[in-house]
Automatic annotation (TrEMBL):
Keywords: Arabinose catabolism, Carbohydrate metabolism, Isomerase, Manganese, Metal-binding. Residues 195-331 form the L-arabinose isomerase central domain. GO terms for biological process: L-arabinose catabolic process to D-xylulose 5-phosphate. Pfam families: AraA_central, Arabinose_Iso_C. Residues 337-476 form the L-arabinose isomerase C-terminal domain. InterPro entries: Ara_Isoase_C, AraA_central, AraA_N_sf, Fuc/Ara_isomerase_C, Fucose_isomerase_N/cen_sf, Lara_isomerase. GO terms for cellular component: cytosol. SUPFAM superfamilies: FucI/AraA C-terminal domain-like, FucI/AraA N-terminal and middle domains. This is L-fucose/L-arabinose isomerase family protein.
Length: 481
């Protein structure tokens, strides 16, 4: 029942390059080559993106004309389709003026020439790699850099298709970072120095905006919530969550009707709050006086935020907007993005528990997530419904966003494995994380990179993709191994 509210998408620019002199020399070559180009454009479109085909650029004059069209189209990334040899004069104006990731695609129509029938015409149809070094070299001389080169076959090449799909995924991240509204509400949890972040620095690094809110902004919509809206949300909660009896932790109890009702009402208010302010995501922390409406609402965000995470709106606690951005990146890669930190080691089986007591990304849960009533939230005020689940079993990726002494952002990235096994029944998310070469060695290397204690947790091994995003954004990054 919980589905993404906003489809992942991006705008992809594509143009072909060639050497115009060939057209008069070889009748039919241009038509054949443009047919191959159209097939490439179709292969890009399969990745659920909008494509803008700028056609053939085979002269420096056309290059300057195409620059204007590319800038006007405001694409997220640009594929330069190396359909045959082209002089670098058709590329230089574009790489110089377009401040977007440019990927060269050198995809041959034939996986190999038929040498018994080989001729110049056939060679030119498959000369996709010939000018790639010329293009990359000229880019560097222009003070720019080609983001990537994809080499392979145009047809039936799974590796090439995966590389194109990866860049389409990256484009979807860039598309939604640009102009994102990542709300910040409340204040930093007292004494958490690693949570402090300058909103202007976030805007400079990621191209997003950080609107600032008070808990009263949620209260204003909370007061408009109707009983019908609450009951509809309760039905969704009943369908999506298990509510088991408590186990070993005396802090937990079976979800009470009172806690479920309050979680549902707050969830409706959060939906309205996100819609009213056109938010992409939210990081928050607020305590409020005991028995106040402010505390009642702010301490019951967890269920509503977990649902919003699954719908594509990253929401995280403890005022950690850096991790909220990391969660957005993971969500737009379609790999989840739960709010997470390290919990106790298991030195016997060589794993560490990975999770948190706050909102989580329900779309990447292993099985049905659990709701428990907590009599207290450890380390912070309040009580109520809390979400507990394990991440899907298999490969996992972690992304932490931290800052150095000069305030520059840094991506700390790691990969591991989530395996089956019992987790503490504490009403918090926990996953058994296994890492190479040993979990203890990995965690030591991780903490030595100076991360924040939170990070975004997702499924699959996507460290290299996230590293490419950092490179595109001009942000330092390290993959911990």
């Amino acid at each position: 029942m919980i589905t993404r509210k906003k489809a992942r998408t991006a705008k992809i620019g594509v143009f072909a390059v060639a050497h115009a002199t060939y057209w008069a020399q070889f009748d039919g070559l241009e038509g054949n080559i443009m047919g191959f180009h159209k097939d490439f454009v179709k292969s890009v479109e399969k990745n659920a993106v909008e494509t803008v085909d700028f056609g053939m650029v085979d002269s420096s004059e056309k290059a300057y004309e195409t620059v204007k069209k590319i800038l006007a189209a405001d694409v997220d990334i640009l594929f330069c389709n190396m359909v045959t040899y082209a002089t670098s004069s058709v590329f230089a104006p574009i790489i110089k003026e377009v401040d977007k990731p440019v990927i060269l695609t050198a995809l041959q129509p034939l996986s190999a020439l038929d040498y018994t029938k080989a001729n110049t015409f056939m060679q030119l149809e498959n000369d996709n790699i010939c000018s790639v070094p010329e293009f990359t070299g000229v880019a560097i001389r222009m003070g720019k850099k080609v983001a990537d080169v994809i080499i392979g076959s145009l047809y039936n090449d799974a590796e090439a298709e995966k590389a194109v799909a990866e860049w389409c995924d990256i484009a979807k991240v860039l598309h939604d970072l640009k102009g994102a509204r990542m709300g910040l509400m409340g204040h930093t949890m007292e004494a958490m120095y690693d949570m402090h972040t300058d909103p202007t620095a976030l805007s400079a690094a990621f191209g997003l905006h950080v609107p600032l809110f008070e808990i009263d902004d949620v209260i204003s919509v909370y007061n408009t919530v109707t009983e019908d809206e609450v009951q509809k949300k309760i039905k969704l909660i009943d369908a999506e969550f298990d509510m088991p009896e408590p186990k070993s932790d005396p802090v937990t109890s079976k979800l009470t009707d009172e806690d479920k009702y309050q979680a549902a009402k707050t969830a409706v208010a959060l939906d309205k709050f996100v819609e009213k302010h056109n938010l992409t995501g939210l990081a928050y922390y607020y305590e409020g006086n005991e028995n106040s409406l402010h505390r009642k609402i702010s301490s019951t965000f967890i269920v509503g935020n977990s649902i919003l995470n699954a719908q594509g709106f990253p929401m995280c606690g403890e005022y950690d907007i850096k991790t909220c951005v990391a969660m957005l990146i993971m969500d737009r890669l379609n790999i989840g993005g739960s709010f997470a930190e390290f919990h106790p080691f298991d030195f016997k089986e060589d794993f560490i528990l990975v999770g948190h007591d706050g909102p989580h990304h329900l779309a990447v849960a292993e099985g049905k997530p659990v709701l428990r009533s907590l009599k207290k939230y450890h380390g912070k005020p309040g009580h109520g419904a809390s979400v507990e689940f394990k991440l899907k079993e298999g490969p996992i990726t972690m992304l932490g966003i931290t800052q150095d002494a000069n305030g520059k952002f840094k991506f700390v990235i790691g990969e591991g494995i989530s395996k089956a096994g019992a987790i503490p029944p504490t009403g918090n998310t926990n996953t058994r994380g296994f890492f190479e070469p040993t979990t203890k060695e990995f965690v030591k290397k991780w903490v030595m990179e100076g991360p924040t204690h939170h990070y975004a947790l997702g499924i699959g091994h996507r460290a290299e993709t996230i590293a490419k995003i950092a490179d595109v954004l001009g942000i330092e990054r390290v993959i911990v191994k």
